[in-house]
Amino acid sequence: MIEIEYLKCHVWTKNQMLEWHLLFVFSDEHHIFVLYMVLESKVNMNISLEEIDKSNYESVCDLDVADSQEEYVACNMWSLVESFYNTGYTCRAIYSDNLPVGFLMWVQESPYKISIWRFMVDKSYQNKGIGREALTQAIDAIKQSPTVKEIEICYDPKNPVAKEFYSSFGFQEVGLDEEDDDMLAIIRL
User: Which CATH class is domain 47-188?
Assistant: First the structure.
């Protein structure tokens, strides 16, 4: 007689759920066969964009990208100073659950155009879908402005990941900036 049993187990860590799928086939009292076993890791993070204030600015300033990314990203502290002394700047901390893990800053350049000037996720939290979800939320927030017709982002054309990542959101390259340093890409609304 053959008996089949299926077992599914969950183990929760702080940021993810591990799920085991096991399928056992029992043929007799002397043999046990494992026919199927899979381990899945599912990220379970609540991503949000939060105001930056005296309670969290130091944590935001302490966030770092990988050494290989430093040439592509401005310092968060400099960005916060820049936003303090200029109008039309919006800064947000990217939170995963209750922990700041990244930074975004966008600028209202005209009634019709908002540019995303800063976007980073700390090196310890990259490649987990956090940046994708945060940028989605930022674009959705920007779209709430009734007069905005264009969202712009710029990036170093030598950045190997940027073009593919931003184009997946609908950004289309329009050429280099005035200094011929950064690639400009836009979403027309």
Answer: alpha beta
Chain Cα centroid distance, residue 187: 18
Over its C-alpha atoms, the chain yields an Rg (Å, rounded) of 22
Is residue 45's pLDDT more than 90?
no
CB 26 within 8 A of CB 109: no
pTM score, two decimals?
Answer: 0.75
CA distances from 145 to 96, 110, 138 (A): 25, 12, 12
Distances (CA, A) of 83 to 76, 90, 95, 96: 11, 7, 20, 23
Query: Residue 50 pLDDT more than 90?
Result: yes
pLDDT in tens, 108-157: 999 999 999 999 999 999 988 899 999 999 999 999 999 999 999 999 88
User: Minimal CA–CA distance to 47: which of 98, 91, 11, 13?
Assistant: 98
**Token code pair at residue 116:** 């995303």
Domain boundaries, the chain: 3-43, 47-188
Full DSSP string of 107-131 = EEEETTEEEEEEEEE-GGGTTSSHH
Asked if residue 182 lies in contact with residue 156, where contact means CB atoms within 8 angstroms, the answer is yes
